[in-house]
Design brief:
heterodimer, A: about 180 residues, mainly alpha, about 75% helix, globular, B: about 100 residues, 3 helices, about 0% strand
Chain lengths: ~180, ~100
């Protein structure tokens, strides 16, 4: 078992374990902070599939931006969000959570069944990529390619998403401003 | 050797956990975290397949777009959550039952 494989299993274990903790924890703040661990482990998985720039973006945008936003909203929304959690019973599997758990488990079983039977690893276009040496190897520098492609092939989505980001940020600022006397 | 199936199974697990969080939590912010988990599972698939696309970088580019979209949607959703809290003094989606004043 090579180091890469071990790192993959470690990262996958951390990601799924901390995501389960996020789902199970009664303490909201603790679950938000465990979500940090999930995001970092997923960034590690990106690195293992040779997408360094996406991993860096994940850390910068998710961990630096989104989680701080979530923490802010959580702190600003006061005691009420904790009061709901305090009334819950302390059993491991609450009865009212059972349908949600069943749906999630059934969905996971379905997805796993499909993935295990789809034989994705010998899909035709993957073999074609292997023949054309179109596979990213650990020696490659992908960032040059990525930058050139963003400015040529994907220029339209790039511009559209920049306008969307501007609109979303203006809209968020507009929504969260102090209400005038109405 | 890590195959694509490994990545797919990991992302399926993350997606299902996100689904469970969305369905079961009584708190809008936790539901938002569940949505983020599901988005991350999808992005993981994009990145894993993007390894086989060195020339056009489709997977990695759209992973970047998806991350930016997630950031934008989270900003708007959190602004809405703050507004809802200011108006109803609760962020339990089960207790909020009208859009207008």
């Amino acid at each position: 078992m090579s180091l890469t494989t071990m790192m993959f299993y470690l990262m996958a274990l951390i990601a799924i374990g901390s995501a389960l903790y996020v789902a199970a924890s009664k303490n909201l703040v603790r679950s938000v902070f465990m979500f940090f661990a999930t995001l970092f482990a997923i960034a590690g998985l990106y690195v293992l599939s040779l997408a360094d720039f996406v991993a860096v973006t994940q850390v910068v945008v998710y961990v630096g931006g989104i989680l701080v936003l979530i923490l802010f909203a959580f702190m600003l929304s006061g005691r009420e969000s904790l009061a709901v959690l305090a009334q819950q019973t302390n059993r491991l599997i609450a009865v009212n959570k059972l349908p949600a758990m069943l749906v999630a488990l059934a969905f996971f079983c379905l997805l796993a069944y499909v993935f295990l039977h789809a034989r994705i690893d010998d899909a035709p276009w993957l073999q074609e990529a292997a023949i054309n040496q179109n596979i990213i190897t650990p020696q490659d520098v992908t960032i040059n390619h990525l930058g050139v492609n963003l400015m040529t092939t994907y220029l339209l989505p790039f511009e559209v998403i920049s306008i969307l980001l501007l609109m979303a940020l203006v809209g968020a600022a507009h929504l969260s401003r102090k209400e005038a006397e109405a | 050797m890590i195959t694509l199936t490994h990545y797919l199974i990991v992302s399926a697990a993350l997606f299902s956990i996100g689904l469970y969080v969305i369905l079961s939590k009584p708190n809008a912010i936790q539901i938002l975290i569940g949505i983020e988990l599901m988005l991350n599972a999808a992005i993981l698939n994009l990145v894993a397949f993007g390894k086989f696309d060195k020339i056009k970088n489709g997977g990695q580019s759209f992973a970047l777009f998806a991350i930016v979209l997630a950031a934008a949607s989270t900003a708007v959703a959190l602004a809405i959550v703050l507004n809802v809290y200011r108006r109803y003094k609760t962020i339990d989606p089960g207790k909020i039952n009208q859009l207008k004043d």
